[in-house]
């Protein structure tokens, strides 16, 4: 690995060996998103209203709660991979890129954990 | 690195519908990931916190425009409420747009749809279908 031009620095290293996997998981989670987000949109349409009572008792049921947890996992994973591509495209300084990707991981992991906790709380009856 | 010539030459290009879908796919995906997931968590957090928190959430994202007040300090919160409703409708549009261009990605990924005419046709069709789906979604919410 030289320290000349950008191409010179990476020549001979081969690929990073993670692009294809990332690409494939983006597709797998996209398929999950299609099924689960259409379920959520259909639920919004088919529920008689979107009041607290209606929505919270609906989401507390075993099947909707499971679907919602799966939706959170699929969408957050997909969004994390998608935003990583955005960062890799536009943030070019190695240190900044590392920092932003670290933040992205914390935000998506924390967000997904919070979302799942909320569904579990609804389903197991901890909410007021 | 910064003074090197760039390819493609950014001043020499002509708009095409395939560029529009590509850009829309990124804008809607990133918009949903950054703004949409925030609102999703706000919604779930409000549900998990009880009826009062849910009422507060609804009051912000789906305010009754007839009841908004524009006197004194309330101007700011009223403007935010109007913006949030636009954001929510915008997110539904982003969802259907990303869904259609995402399904188009699946077709391209299996190696189909690269003929110039077919590619152009679906590039134009996918954002239009998305607008129709968004309208149908809101019509269904209101009517059903
Ligand atoms: C509705 C079903 C969905 C499908 C079929 C879908 C499909 C896809 C596909 C195929 C890609 C990869 C594009 C590429 O390789 O250039 C992608 C990227 C992306 N998706 Fe989705 N997606 C869906 C839902 C969502 C949702 C709900 C979100 C956000 C909450 C999201 C956020 C993103 C982001 C941020 C990217 C990266 C965009 C880019 O790099 O240009 N997607 N999506
Ligand atoms: C002749 C002009 C252009 C060429 C040859 C070109 C080429 C490309 C290529 C090869 C990609 C990667 C595709 C992929 O990862 O699947 C791409 C992605 C992208 N380009 Fe361009 N581009 C051009 C003009 C533009 C312009 C003018 C804009 C914005 C104003 C733009 C915005 C984007 C965006 C947002 C993406 C990411 C989309 C995605 O990942 O699906 N492009 N472009």
Chain-wise SSE layout:
The complex is a heterodimer of chains A (about 130) and B (about 140).
Chain A lengths: L5 H5 L8 H28 L5 H9 L1 H29 L3 H31 L4
Helix pairs in contact in A: 2-4, 3-5, 4-5
Chain B lengths: L16 H33 L1 H11 L12 H36 L6 H28 L1
Helix pairs in contact in B: 1-2, 1-3, 1-4, 3-4
The complex binds protoporphyrin IX containing FE (2 copies).
Main location (chain B): membrane
GO molecular function, one term (chain B): metal ion binding
Keywords (chain B): Heme, Iron, Membrane, Metal-binding, Transmembrane, Transmembrane helix
How is this structure best described in words?
The complex is a heterodimer of chains A (128) and B (144). Chain A has 128 residues and is an all-alpha fold. Helices cover 80% and strands 0% of the residues of chain A. The longest helix of chain A is centred in the C-terminal third of the chain and has 31 residues. Chain A is built from five helices and no strands. Chain A has a single domain, classed as 3 helical TM bundles of succinate and fumarate reductases. Chain A is elongated. In chain A, α2 packs across α4. Chain B is an all-alpha fold and 144 residues long. Chain B has one domain: Fumarate reductase/succinate dehydrogenase, transmembrane subunit (3 helical TM bundles of succinate and fumarate reductases), CATH 1.20.1300.10. Chain B is built from four helices and no strands. The longest helix of chain B is centred in the middle third of the chain and has 36 residues. The model of chain B has no long low-confidence stretch (mean pLDDT 93). At the A-B interface, α2, α3, α4 and α5 of A face α1, α2, α3 and α4 of B. The complex binds protoporphyrin IX containing FE (2 copies). One protoporphyrin IX containing FE sits at the interface of chains A and B.
């Amino acid at each position: 690995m030289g320290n000349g031009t950008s191409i010179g620095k990476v020549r001979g290293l081969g690929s990073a060996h993670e692009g294809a996997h990332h690409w494939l998981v983006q597709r797998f989670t996209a398929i999950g998103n299609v099924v689960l987000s259409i379920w959520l949109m259909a639920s919004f349409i088919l529920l008689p209203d979107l009041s607290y009572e209606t929505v919270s008792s609906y989401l507390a049921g075993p099947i909707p709660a499971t679907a919602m947890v799966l939706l959170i996992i699929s969408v957050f994973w997909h969004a994390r991979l998608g935003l990583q591509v955005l960062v890799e495209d536009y943030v070019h300084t190695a240190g900044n890129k590392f920092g932003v990707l670290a933040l992205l991981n914390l935000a998506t992991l924390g967000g997904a954990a919070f979302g799942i906790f909320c569904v579990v709380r609804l389903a197991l009856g901890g909410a007021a | 690195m910064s003074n090197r010539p760039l390819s493609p030459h950014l001043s020499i290009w002509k708009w095409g519908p395939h560029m529009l879908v590509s850009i829309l796919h990124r804008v809607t995906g990133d918009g949903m990931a950054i703004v949409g997931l925030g609102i999703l968590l706000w919604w779930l957090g409000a549900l998990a916190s009880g009826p009062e928190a849910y009422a507060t959430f609804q009051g912000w994202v789906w305010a009754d425009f007839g009841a908004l007040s524009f006197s004194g300090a309330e101007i700011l919160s009223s403007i935010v409420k109007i913006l949030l409703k636009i954001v929510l409708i915008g997110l539904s549009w982003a969802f259907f747009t990303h869904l259609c261009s995402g399904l188009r990605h699946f077709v391209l990924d299996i190696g189909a749809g690269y003929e110039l005419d077919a590619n152009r046709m679906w590039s134009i069709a996918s954002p239009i279908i998305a607008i129709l789906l968004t309208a149908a979604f809101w019509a269904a919410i209101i009517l059903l």
